[in-house]
Amino acid sequence: MQNILALIYSSEFDEKNYDTLCKYRPDYMLPFGCRYRVIDFTLSNITNHNISSVILYGGEPLRSTLDHVGDGRNWELNRRSGGLMINPPVYLRSRLANEIETYYNTMKHFMRNKREYVYITNPMYISKVNISDAYEKMQDENLDALIFTQKKNDEYGYYLNRRIINTDENENPVSVGINLGLEEEINLFTGSILIKKDIFMDLLRYSIEKNNATNVLDALFKYPKKKSIGLYKSKESLSVIMDTLTYFEASFNLLDRDFFDEIFYEQGMVYTKSKDEPSTEYLKGSKVRNSLVANGAIIEGEIENSIIFRGVTVKKGAVIKNSIIFQNSEIGEGAILNHVITDKDTKVFEDVKLFGNRTHPYLTDKGEHIN
């Protein structure tokens, strides 16, 4: 897979949808699964398929990205040839550039890179998609571009307002649409495109000149030159994070053992920035049921159906249910939390009660003290 350049870009969803969760970090830097960040899953999947040239288009604020991802050494991307490049946000006349404009403004990187294919992916679609299999399909069918999708039965409207690919009677893609719930079965776009680099660069030039598209998926169908586009229909488990609610739901998907095993262990491991911390300490009287608890935590209270990050302290008599507790938070004696997300370094004092619900979890700010 040394013939592929990977581009990671995550601005499809508005970060305002995350309330305070993205106040101090881009969406792809959200903590996920006890000790990881959302970006770890995309970086790991890319490198597990032996793609060694990656450009990460960073979001704001950029500091957390530089601190966590760095030179890419945890994904073996700290190389002299290829490797990882983090591109800062692109601004045009004091506004943030859209996807097409961002790629066009970094065209020189594509020209210098000798790889012939570009894999474009959004890290907010968490899945262990088989990039190698998709590349083989593209070669076998002599395609110019391949759009990654999943066939979904959406009778309950879970994928409403998501982008879908409309097809003809032969299952050839013909247009991009928005799922309004008119059809029970849809071709859900899963955030990735594999495309020949020369076509990709020409598509960018055309889109800028005509000013007719803001993202690559739309531009692909507005590009007038003859091209062959196919669909890669993946079957791997998928979590799409687009706001606070879907982040909450995606996190609790990890409590399903089958999903956990697939997302962490199948088609390669998930890697992250390493931190040396002691094992979790469970003190007398602690109770933990159906939860994920990271190393470095000290547990003396009761935890159920929750996700506890590194360095968290849960004191005697505290009860945490259906909640996500970020790194280095402290939950005081007798406190009760249900459907809560505490940001890093939150301190909840003794006997405080915090309640949200499944669709509107209670959020705390980073470093907030609640008494």
Automatic annotation (TrEMBL):
It holds the Pfam family Hexapep_GlmU. Its EC number is 2.7.7.27. Keywords: Glycogen biosynthesis, Nucleotidyltransferase, Transferase. The keyword Cell cycle does not apply. GO terms for molecular function: glucose-1-phosphate adenylyltransferase activity. It is an enzyme of class 2 (transferase). Residues 286-353 form the Glucose-1-phosphate adenylyltransferase/Bifunctional protein GlmU-like C-terminal hexapeptide domain. CDD domains: LbH_G1P_AT_C (cd04651). GO terms for biological process: glycogen biosynthetic process. Belongs to the bacterial/plant glucose-1-phosphate adenylyltransferase family. PANTHER family: GLUCOSE-1-PHOSPHATE ADENYLYLTRANSFERASE-RELATED, GLYCOGEN BIOSYNTHESIS PROTEIN GLGD. This is Glucose-1-phosphate adenylyltransferase, GlgD subunit. It comes from Anaerococcus vaginalis ATCC 51170. The lineage of its organism: Bacteria, Bacillati, Bacillota, Tissierellia, Tissierellales.
